[in-house]
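Following up on my earlier thread - several people asked me to post the actual chain instead of describing it. Fair enough. Here it is, all 212 residues.
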Amino acid sequence: ETHDPTVSYFSEKLRARIFSLEYSLSPEYKFPFALGEAKVALNWLINRGSKIENISICGDSAGAHLAASLSHHLAIEGKHNVHSQFLIYPMCDPKCQSESIELFKSNYLLTKEAMRWFWEKFRGTEKDDTNNLFNLNLLEKNMNLPKTIIVTAGFDPLSDEAEEYAFKIHQNGNYVKQLHYPSLFHGFASMTRLKAAKKAVDDFLFHYKEIL
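Reply from S.P.:
Thanks for posting it. Predicted structure:
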């Protein structure tokens, strides 16, 4: 319900079918419960005739973290991976110690205090912080990930950790493109009534459609 208008707009612009996962939320359902649901959803699509190489996964913020966790899981298991992942201002690192999270820790919608609270409620155990399905920036060397596009915003506390993730994917020799919108903020993808946000969304959907 929260994302239906955004997802519908994406589908129209991409001319693609989108299946939106209403995954279970923390703190009632902690990591890795939602990841298990994402695996079920992927298998559901495959069992109904979709080839995994024709599936792209996408999400924003916590949803982007979930999408990336799924692609990490498939890579670690040595399974066929999805075609691509499109990650919109993903949450990547539970340490919350980047420069951007300090620079924009308050007054930019998403705050450092809120992010630390989100990670605390999402975390199953302290050991999760050393798990690269939870901390995406612990990406293993030589992990073969699908084509990746990462969207970042200039006034987003999560910008630096997402950029670090993009760089680590690049170091692994995988295809990755970072699309940075310096005047925007966390959450802009669902605020297309703002001209700058709509322009950015149309731009990143253009790049996404190019790789599909």
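The chain has a mean pLDDT of 97. That should answer part of your original question.
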